[in-house]
Amino acid sequence: MPLDPQSYHQAVDHYSRGQHAAALAVLAPWLDEASADPEALNLAAMCEYAMNRMDRAEACWQRAIAGHPHHTGAYNNLGNLYERLGRRTDAEAMYRRSLELNEDSADAHYNLGNVLAQQDRLADAERSFRSALELRPDFALAHNNLANLLARGERVPEAEAAYRRTLAAHPGYADAHNNLGNLLAAQERFDEAATHLQQAVELRPDWADVHVNLGRAFAGQKRYDDAEREFRAAIGLNPRMLAAHQKLIELLDGCGRFAELEHACRHVADIEPGSSDAFRNLGTAIYQITSRSHLERMGEAEAAYRRAIALQPEATGAYLSLGDLLQEDPARIDEAIAELRQAFALGARGGQAQGLLGTALLRTGRYAEGWPLLESRYDGRWEEFPLRAEHVPYPQWRGESLVGKSLLVVEEQGFGDTFQFCRYLSALKLLGPAKIAVLWMRDDPLYRSIPGVDASLTHAELPGAPPFDYWCFLMSLPALMRTTLDTIPRTTPYLFAADDRIEYWRKRLPSDALKVGIAWMGEPRPHLRDDFCNFSRRWASARDCLPLLGVPGVRFVNLQKGASARQDLATLPSHFRPLDPMDEADNFADTAAIIACLDLVITIDTSIAHLAGALGKPVWILLSSKSCWRWLLHRDDSPWYPTARLFRQTVPNQWDDVIERVVAALTEWRGNQPSLADAARGFI
After folding, report:
1. What are the structural domains, with CATH classification, of the chain?
2. Of 55-64, 480-489, 490-499, 631-640, where does mean pLDDT reach its minimum?
């Protein structure tokens, strides 16, 4: 019996109002017959689909097709059902059959494009979307999904143009604003991205995903308060949305708000108690807090990492974090190395993994195994270098004979690294090269004093320089020369201040007392968040040094440069403030000349320590409990600098005991120095 128009329209009205059961009740008389009306079956299937009764929906569409093989809508709609169920091959077959019957169906072309894209058949999917758009040029969904496809294929300009066409036709289409915003943010065009993502939020304020995306764009603009607001808005809409929680955690971590970070991580661990990542993040949050105070809660951090491992025994990141944590206690260094090795056994690779294990091994003096792993610093996740290996047009030196060859050595990382490892340049000369040139990141007159350098280049000069047979990074030389503790080139000095600069500074420094240089603060390096020599471990305040500055018979000379140092010095009582010549020091050549005029240098682990050691000046170096790998463990001397004496923290992050021991040592040292009057008479 054919479906009467009045009943059909009544059923359609119920369906459009979401009254699916009522629509089915109207259609029921036309569904039981063997020759049921195809439109009744199609509409009934749509009702069953909307009610999530997929078996019944499939049966209705199959009956419609069986009784009416040319019903294109039934094929298309059954394809939609199969696509939803993940039966992509069946869905593709239905869409293609629908198009065989009606090749002018824009919807069928669009649906086929979607299922092909899900199978990563991007070229076929693109053809289908373009066919849909030829038939319906204002088809917003097809424009948007074509743009998504182009973005997946890294055809960014075409994708951007497709999104903009979508929005030109449908300016209120939130999905297109969101997708275009994400595309622009990926290109770091954060201002444009934020504009589109804000429009998406205005159009769909209850869409948690777009709040996260807008927060990411705000973070890219460094609008951190706005970013936080959006991440919290997403969490308010979907309290279990891990992506929003993760972005909030990253923001709090980056802003140094560690108490809030711990709270956020605990919340995620509470809602996802089976998540290994949640407990790893919690452990890291506790570690961040305690590594900046007294480490009383390191046990909590360790327990969180071990919980992460228990939940996911193959979680390499948790082993890496645990290995990093255990190094806080020098007595547990072997445990730390064991955890890091386990991460490697499970497949951990990349800059962080190799760097953590490499530096742990170097701390214990296992140089043969540690040096090769330190090469991971070239991984972009550790630090961006002005010159990448793939950009150098010469072969990288791997230890081949240098006899008669030319070698370009590339400076890298911090000044302290350069001062420590430039000693190898003179050692390279013993290998018989015809020419050694150095490509400097920074120009400093002090570099002209380095033995063994035939030529110096800047990055601007490199393209016009004659070709070299080989090149290498400066910090790769210990590995290439197979350095062990016994073979470190330890002859000092190997850097030299210019005589005229020494004379200049000698006239400006006091001559009536022993002169001791002092530096208490390393250079902040926020781009190296995982740096094993991070700023928080290379920092004390000027007030921490007050007992030291009060030692009688000594004139202290500031070696700390910059606005932060001046502000810190201003907190001291005037009679404790050291002489400060650093405003006149234009470069490290001046600093080296000042150090040459001193009797002793006392410094935190910073470039001043390496400069004083390279100049052969007596230098006392104050180290944190988790000191940098280059200072090894459990010793008060350094194989790198014969004139160095090391003073290590016995209580993590506490300098009081260190300063007390330095005061005692300085008092004894001062008593052992000849008086200036005796020195003037020649009684030494």
Report:
1. 1-64 (1.25.40), 70-171 (1.25.40.10), 391-480 (3.40.50), 499-681 (3.40.50.2000)
2. 55-64
